[in-house]
Amino acid sequence: MNRYMNDIIDVLKVDFDINISIFDESFLTRIINMRISDTKSKNIKEYKKLIKENIQEAIVLKRLLNITYTRFFRDSLIFAQLQKIVLPSIITSINQQRELRIWSAGSSGGQEAYSLAILISEFEEELGIKIPYRIIATDISETKLKKGRSGIFRKNEVIDLKLKYIEKYFTSRGSEYIISEKLKKNISFSYFDLTDDKNIKPPESIYGDFDLVLCSNLLFYYNPEVQKKIIVKSELSLGPNGYFITSEAEKVLVKDFTKLKQINPTSSIFKLNNQGAIL
Ligand SMILES: C[S@@+](CC[C@H](N)C(=O)[O-])C[C@H]1O[C@@H](n2cnc3c(N)ncnc32)[C@H](O)[C@@H]1O
What we know:
alpha/beta; CheR_MeTrfase; 12 helices; 7-stranded mixed sheet
């Protein structure tokens, strides 16, 4: 890594107690280059000086390093497999004997958690049964957690949703779309830092391990050591026969760092068992 890059990492750590060494080097370089350009600094040396003298710039850099983009049913292939394979398998094995437990790790504004709740609600209707479930959505962005708790989305955020889902699960108020209380009551939003060494699982997991953990579109922003830590944490939080889901681009990391098995050779859905692929 460039000497000034290391200096910037040190300044942030020592002067502002912000640790950016956890990020992937090329991602970090890209964001810092963007700030060099946006702040009209002549070069990285000048940007280092700027950041040392200006806490506001440190705050801006920290914020830019946390990408929070998400959307409902973000990866259609994964949600199709959730609907056809994963949820039916979990629902059948639990057989209404206990609550189904899901962790949306790095939930952003809750679109992933609410998409899952929609699928479960559709199953309830199809099977004519009540499926007790709890989704624990966690994130480090208080702004996004607040949004998730509010369950209020803008028109452009629901635009990709099937019309029948919008009509069934949202009420509109002016330009806002509000998620139904029926789904909202099953989801809790709380702060949990996946890079934190102290805790393996969110506090809510004292009630039992998870049947399904989703940790998507955040691993690739971190360096390999941190990626491994997050994946191992997720694996440890799974109950027997639990499933782990990541994004298409991140599945290779799970294969590298755990013994979880893909449910089929190309899937980014993994299963906790020793029997290998289940399809
Ligand atoms: C790009 S969004 C992806 C959201 C969703 N999982 C998806 O796939 O669409 C990444 C989210 O992970 C959160 N995140 C990043 N680092 C985290 C960490 N160390 N602990 C918990 N959440 C984190 C961010 O705040 C952001 O909301």
